[in-house]
Amino acid sequence: MEAQPSVVVAVARDEGHHFSKPLADEVVLVAGWGIEGDAHAGTTVQHRSRVARDPSQPNLRQVHLLHAELFDEVAAAGFAVSPGDIGENVTTRGIDLLGLPTGTVLHLGESASVRVTGLRNPCQQINGFEPGLLKAVLGRDEDGSVERKGGVMSVVLTGGAVRPGDAVRVELPAGAPEPLQPV
């Protein structure tokens, strides 16, 4: 059986700081900045809670990627979640995003690329979208450690347009893999 290709399922952006992001036909990634027209773009932190702590921190959360397989998993638990609903910019299918090492480069479409910086740390706002969903996106692995399933965060290395249906190519970093940590 042939492996299924890794693809972009959906893209989303929002100029405001809202929990869900509306879907778009395409998003334009800008190197070192993020997604054109998205509230979380910038060289320094843009997430409100992080700005309140220290607005000079580098923005390691320019682009949020989420695996569509999570929607299938939470649907089995009775939750209806679709692309953009929990704030991601790029929804993928066919990639184990959570299993990637820190520093992995994801090539999106014809020219864009992002470097994975860490895990999204799901917050209480998820329960505002659908009560009980936070528990569904937080789990425990075999050794009892918290398993964060809310996708990965990244910074833009090379700009370009990204659209649903675009291929995603994974480039693993050299050296010993470093597991993803929350950013």
From TrEMBL:
It holds the Pfam family MOSC. GO terms for molecular function: catalytic activity; molybdenum ion binding; pyridoxal phosphate binding. InterPro entries: MoCF_Sase_C, MOSC_domain, Pyrv_Knase-like_insert_dom_sf. Residues 21-171 form the MOSC domain. Gene3D superfamilies: PK beta-barrel domain-like. SUPFAM superfamilies: PK beta-barrel domain-like. PANTHER family: METAL-SULFUR CLUSTER BIOSYNTHESIS PROTEINS YUAD-RELATED, MOSC DOMAIN-CONTAINING PROTEIN. This is MOSC domain-containing protein. It comes from Curtobacterium luteum. The lineage of its organism: Bacteria, Bacillati, Actinomycetota, Actinomycetes, Micrococcales.
